[in-house]
Every structure is written in C-alpha cells, then in structure tokens.
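User: Structure tokens for both sequences below?

Assistant:
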Amino acid sequence: MLHRILIAVDGSHASRLATLQAIELAKLSHATIRAIYVADDSDTALGSAAIDQAAAGSRAATLGKDMARQNLTLATVGAYAEVLTARDLVASYGKLVDALGEIVRHTGLRYDVGDATSSEVAQAKARRAEGQAGLVQAQGRLTAALARLERLTGKRPTLREEGKSRSILSLRDETPGTIALFSPLIDARVLLDGAFVGYTTGDRRVPLLLDGLEPGVHEVSTDLGRDFGVVKLPEVSFGPWKELVRVPAGKKVVIVDASTHFNEVLYRLKQLVSESKTAVFDSAGLFSVAYPFSFVDRTGASHAGRIALDIAAPVQPDAHGRGTVYVELDGSGQTLALDYTENATAEARATIGLASFRAEVDQSYGRVSVELAVERTDVDQGMHRLGD
C-alpha cells in the first residue's frame, strides 16, 4: 500500500493532470501527497511569470490534498455511523431472537405435558425463524459496514473488545460456558445438539461436564435403549430424555437427567388405589373405609371415582362375616356383596369404564385384613415394547 505520493509541480498542463491523478490515487490508497517544485537550473533567465505559475501549481496541489483529506474524513465518519446503526440493529434482533427462542422452549415444555398443541409449537418456531432471518440480514449489513470502514482507514476493525470475548457482530459476551449433567443412568450415550459427546458417569452424584460451549441454547439428551427415557403424558408415549439448556457466557449450568425405566412410570400410572389395612371394628362391630381417586386418560379426559368397603365382624370366630363394596367411576356405580369366612379369602371384582376394582377380605388367626385396589385399564407395564 502507498503511504506517500510525490508530485512534481512546474506549472505545466502535464503537472496539473498529474496532480489530479495523484489526488485520486491518494483517496484509494489512503496516502499523503507531497508537492515538489521543479526548476531548471540551466535556465538563469527564469522570469517572474514562471515563478508565479509554479506558485499557483503548488497552491493547487495543497488545495487538492486538503480536499482529499476532507473527503476521506467525511467518508470515514459516514462509514462509522453506519457501523453504529447496523450494530444497534444486530443488538435489537439478537434480543428478539433470544426472547422468541425462550417462547419456543416454553411452548415445547407445555407441549410435552399436554398443555400446548403442535400448531402452537409450529407457530412459535415460525416466529423465531422470522427473527433469525432479520438477525442474519442485520449482521450482513454490519459486516458490509465494517468492510467499508476498513477500506477507508486501512485498518481492520476489531471484532472483540480487548480483554473480553465479546463480538461486535452480536454484542454478546462469547466466553465459553459449561453444562454439568447429573444422570441416574449408567453408561448412557450423551448427545449435545444431536452429536455424540460421551457417556454418563454411572454415578448420579458425579456430573459429566460439557465444556467450551458457545453461549446460547443447546439441546442435551441421553439414550440407554428402548427401556429408559421419559413418558409423555397424557397420551403415554415414550422417548429419550432431552432438554433445551440456555448456557450464559462464562457460566456453568447444572441439569438433571429425568430418565427412568418406563415400567416404573407405567406401574405408578396404572395403580390408582392400593391399600391394605387390618380391620378395627367399632362398638357396633362395623368397619368402614373409602378411597377416592382421579386420573387423566390417554386422550386427556379427566375421570374421578371411589371405592368403599363396609364389613361387619362375625358373631362367632368361626362364623361368616358380611360386607359390601361400593365402586364408582364418573357417577356410575355398583354395589358388590363380600361375605367372608375363617381361613379363607373373599374377593369381589368389577370394571367400570377405564377402571378395574378389586376388594379382598381375609380372616385368619383371629384377625380380619382388607385390601382394596383400583387400576387403570388403558395402561400396562411393558406397553412401551408393544411395537417390537
């Protein structure tokens, strides 16, 4: 790159043309102009007219240099103003994309628990995509402004503040962050943004550290085969655990893998009532117990019911005892007889809709024990393997 341009000034037409060309060249190369007056020593008869002509040429060169400097200054100021404008646009769109990304995350979580529809998730993602497109356009404008500023000043503008990992393109601190993943799974595959990055530690108290992460939202998931993961309710579908994690610049985020064996979840979902008691008869020889329950079926519909037992103590130790069981679901009920004898187990069963009822009474060793159970019929252990 040129730093200084020397021009010969002798008052001639050729000299004036050379001066104009030097001014244009100085604009492009950011060089300075130095005018040199050329005199012919052999011509001792140089007259006052020639001297005046040379002086005029020198003044013209000085004026051209000043104009070039002024034009360059104005262009540089304009380019810098464009950088500031574009930077503000990038900042605004960056905040918008962050906010829309958070909306997508929350909508996805609501969808996972049945509180949002797939169309709501799609709409949130579409709005985020529009924001991301605006951000890309603003970043392109900023890149072009920085390139023009570099051409005018001859120096590449720094994209990071000194001593910090902060990009002028995003105005964000880009110091890498860390995710600490605690998981109950042993040797499960861990994926970060869809790419395999290692295995769980096998100790729920010792995390797997994912270091050097770019600030922003990352997806973390685990995979230990088709028996482990999370159950999506209320439809009771199965999949690996995954979570969107926002990693701040230079910070560590702790997350816990919610994976479990599918059958553990299915067992808890299926069992609506499971109670065992020893009957303690009152002064009238009666014992009563009742348990209400409720659940949401796989279509999202809510149900409520109860099971109630009333039994009378036998008059003699070896005599029959009498009892009744009342079962109900969503307002529809049945009453079942449940008589029992010494050293025998009496049982009553009924099914109403999606609920299966069972009551047992056992009299032995001078004691009466009762057991009441209600189970869902739309959920079973092992159902996650039905498609195998």
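Moving on to the next sequence.
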Amino acid sequence: MPSAQEQHSFEFPGYVFNDQSAAVSFESALAYTKVVPALVAAQTGTLTTRTDDDTGVATLSTGHGIESADVVDVYFAEGVRYGMDATVATNAVTLDGGTGTAFPTQDDAVTVVLQLDWEIDFDGDDAQIIGVFYRNPSDTGALAHVDFQDIGNASINEVDLVHETANGGCDQITNISAGDTNPYTGNAIALAKVTHDSLEAATAYCLVGIVAL
C-alpha cells in the first residue's frame, strides 16, 4: 500500500528538531504534472485604466499573445486576480471580472497570463492527503496559481504557489488523515487552470493519495 509523509524540521546553532508525523497510507497514488511555459516580456505592462476592483485596461507590448475571449490571470505586486475575461485592441487589453485580489492602483505594473488547462481528475472526498507544488529553479521568486474546477468549470479550490524551496513552498499540503480541513470536497475535480508570472518555464505538481477509486 503506498504512503506519503509530511515532515518538518528546525535547525538552530546547537539544536535540531524534527517532527515524527505518521505516514499516511492510501490505496491509490495519483500524480499530475504540468509544464508551465515561459512568458514573454511583452505580457507585462501597465494598468493604464482602473475602472474598479475588477475592471480595467492593461497596456502591454507588441507580441503579448493575448486574444479577445481569452480567460486570463493577472499578476501584480499585491497578488493575483484569476479568471478574468480579456478583450484585446492591439496592445490594450480590457480586463473584467474574475476572483481574487482587487486590482492595484492605476499605472502599476501588471502581467497578463492566459490560463492553461491542466488535466486533473479526482474526487477530493476520497482523498487522504493532497500536495500541490511549483518547481522553478531558474526563477525562485516566481509566483503561480492553480484553480481546481468541477466539470462545469465551477471553482472547488484555488491555491497560490511559490517555488518549492522558497518560503511557503510546501504550504499547500493538506493532510486530511491527520485532521486538516479538506478544501477539495464537494463535486469531483475534473480539471484545473494554471498560470505563473515567470519568464522561465516551470512545472506544477498535484499529488493525491486516494482511499479508493
């Protein structure tokens, strides 16, 4: 029977502490990976119009690749707003809707990123442990976002990610077996939408221990 174990340690001059959390056993190990391509510099521009918290116009550069009717995530210093509708007129990208952090101040820098489909299929109600990670060794300060959705594209759970060795890189481990609240319950997850803000290619991981299929 496969198993997983979440471990924590603390090192201090003259002291080392390690927890002894029990291994989590499950019947099926599901591993999903997704290569997230490098962005182009033209996808970063300025929020030249801020209508309200979820509406505005980003002015990008030639070659940004965003098209009208694209669903995009928008990254900025304060966070990310995900699932926004884009309407494009050359380099002016009108953005509307979405969920997440409110738009920043007008004229702040923004990065507009097309959501990528990630084929993921599991029922969170059957999960014993779930780990979601982002690996980008060429850009360890990059940010990523994953929106887990049901078959009707309703969001079940969304997570912000940083590189695995950055502060918070292992924050998206949900150990249901050990008593963690499970945010993946409800309708089964049928897909995910993933983005990042990096000019370097990276990989996202979703690792799930399932009680039974």
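User: Anything stand out in the second?

Assistant: Residues 28 and 213 are 7 Å apart (CA to CA).
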